[in-house]
Fold this sequence. Notes:
11 strands; globular; T-fold; alpha+beta; 150 residues
Amino acid sequence: MQGYDDSQGITAGLINATGDIQAWGIQPNGKPWRIGINDPFKSNDLVGTIDINGAITTSGSYEKYALINGKRYTHIINPATGYPATGLTSVTITGPDAEMANAFSTSIMVLGKDAGLELLRKFPGYKAFIITDAGKYITSPGFKIKKISR
């Protein structure tokens, strides 16, 4: 976390700023910080969890949208077309910095999985978990999700 100084004795913490999360250290119980990733197709369910020591952000089309004539229009707009982004339902990014992770998650929602993963390859500290509109899961190399068994 930029500007973090543990000289005051703060060795661990978790900051949640409207869903953009930055964590460092371990919990008081000795366990890593564990974050759940929502299933965008099943309200109140998780796809899985991830242990983090850094940032995690998610951009998606499943919470903020308008339903018009049976079609979902997300709040994430593709600047090239002026229309809502399509193709991806959720993009979760982990990495060292929450601001960059948020920029990547939103950008990949617009770029799509192929161009988005190509962009992310240039920034090896960041990893992605993508859910397509068809419900397919795609992970970039190194993204470690623990599946929820039901």
